[in-house]
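Why should sequence recovery work at all? Because a backbone constrains its sequence more than one might expect. Tight turns favour small or flexible residues, buried strands favour hydrophobic ones, and helices have their own preferences. The token representation captures these environments compactly. In the example below, the structure is given first.
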């Protein structure tokens, strides 16, 4: 159809006015108001654009019944929550796009309890006086060995606040090999520039020595900074200054040392077969004056930027005006406090924090979930579908444990009429959505990131998609 032709012009004339369609839909019981008006305009604009572009619009699409249905469906789409639970079958545990760490049962209860009513966010019950919301995070010093702590909304904010409070207008010395981009184009030099600190690069891309830091220290030096390469690895002829060495240089020149751990971990994951990631308490014990890390990665809690270290430095951070702009809300505090409480039980913390449980789950336990899914699919016998179990590798994700594959088991799907990409899209549009990954010509359902209680739902989703038929995709 050509928009300049007579048929196209006739279809454009048949599109009703906005107020006419609003009255038509509201007469059918839809509540009048801004949502209805917006839905009507969206439907009309879409029809007009499609006709002009020569799209497949016919007179049947413009009859009252069709228009009422279209507007009603658009209103439903507009009023349904856009954020929803998904089944993560990608094998990426700390999947940034999927919200990183799922919260523990204790954390979920804490968020619910403190959000559905009033709470003592900034109120000391013992004295009846106002206090700081940071009062609820007293476990951080206990768990890390630091003198004090402060929490903001994410780790980039934590770094920004520390640099602004302690080094604005002065110099911060960093190894050239650690000037990282932490994701979504946020780069350490940009954060430092925003803080007002002046970046001083030392060393080379692959080699930096303690003497490079020592030689660069001057009257304007405010901080020595070390950045853990949590989202990349440098191999070959390469070395960076160990934290102990940097602390020694800092103390010799009376310059504090800040370490950005990025992911941050409160427990050693090496006993579970994962490469050693720095443990926050180790950084404190080695003499770092400040350490920053995330709450929603290896800590296993909500998104937050955590700062621990010496009391004088934490006080400087806490009293800076920027701290208020970066503060966390009551739901984050409740979830983080509950997550920290889990760490008091060293024997059970791994099993109680979903992200840590997924990262450390044994191959055999993952394989059992794959077998269970296969049996569920066999009972349902989805039309045109074949499946098998295959060993593969998962990833930690979230800029954590880069280039480290975690052994896993996947259920591999192939369909007579739907290719892997079509299957992936169909599952993604299912309720609840299932997010999987394509490998070659097959769709992989990685069972490491599928909770045991989700296996039945996953089987239902696959069966429903196959029952819909290829004509719908």
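From this structural description, the recovered sequence reads:
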């Amino acid at each position: 159809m050509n928009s300049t032709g007579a048929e196209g012009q006739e279809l454009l004339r048949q599109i009703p006015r906005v107020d006419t369609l609003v009255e038509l839909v509201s007469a059918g019981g839809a509540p009048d108001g801004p949502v209805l008006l917006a839905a009507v305009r969206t439907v009309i604009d879409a029809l007009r654009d499609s006709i002009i572009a020569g799209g497949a619009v016919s007179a049947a699409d413009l009859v009252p019944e069709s228009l009422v249905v279209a507007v009603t469906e658009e209103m439903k789409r507009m009023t349904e929550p856009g954020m929803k639970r998904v089944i993560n079958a990608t094998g990426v545990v700390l999947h940034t796009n999927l919200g990183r760490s799922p919260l523990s049962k204790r954390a979920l209860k804490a968020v619910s309890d403190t959000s559905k009513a009033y709470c003592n966010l900034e109120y000391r019950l013992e004295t009846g006086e106002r206090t700081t919301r940071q009062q609820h995070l007293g476990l951080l010093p206990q768990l890390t060995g630091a003198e004090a702590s402060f929490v903001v909304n994410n780790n980039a904010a934590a770094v920004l606040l520390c640099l602004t409070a302690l080094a604005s207008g002065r110099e911060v010395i960093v190894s050239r090999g650690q000037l990282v981009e932490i994701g979504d184009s946020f780069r350490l030099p940009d954060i430092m520039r925003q803080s007002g600190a002046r970046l001083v690069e030392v060393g080379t891309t692959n080699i930096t020595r303690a003497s490079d830091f020592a030689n660069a220290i001057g009257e304007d030096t405010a901080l020595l900074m070390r950045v853990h390469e949590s989202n990349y690895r440098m191999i070959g002829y390469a070395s960076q200054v160990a934290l102990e060495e940097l602390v020694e240089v800092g103390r010799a020149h009376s310059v504090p040392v800040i370490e950005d751990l990025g992911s941050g971990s409160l427990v050693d994951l090496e006993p579970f077969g994962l490469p050693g990631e720095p443990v926050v308490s180790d950084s404190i014990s080695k003499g770092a004056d400040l350490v920053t890390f995330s709450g929603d990665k290896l800590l296993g809690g909500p998104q937050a930027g955590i700062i621990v270290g010496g009391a004088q430095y934490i006080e400087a951070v806490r009293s800076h005006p920027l701290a208020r702009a970066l503060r966390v809300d009551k739901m984050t505090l409740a979830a983080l406090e509950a997550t920290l409480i889990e760490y008091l039980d060293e024997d059970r913390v791994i099993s109680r924090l979903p992200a840590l449980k997924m990262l450390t789950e044994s191959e055999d336990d993952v394989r059992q979930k794959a077998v269970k899914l296969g049996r569920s699919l066999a009972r349902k016998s989805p039309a045109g579908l074949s499946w098998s179990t295959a060993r593969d590798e998962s990833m930690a994700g979230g800029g954590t444990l880069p280039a480290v594959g975690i052994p896993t088991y996947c259920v591999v799907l192939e369909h007579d009429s739907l290719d892997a990409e079509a299957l992936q899209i169909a599952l993604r549009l299912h309720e609840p959505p299932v997010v999987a990954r394509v490998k070659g010509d097959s769709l992989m359902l990685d069972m490491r990131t599928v909770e045991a209680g989700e296996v039945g739902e996953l089987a239902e989703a696959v069966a429903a998609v196959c029952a819909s038929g290829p004509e719908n995709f």
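A few observations help interpret the result. Residues 6-79 form one domain.
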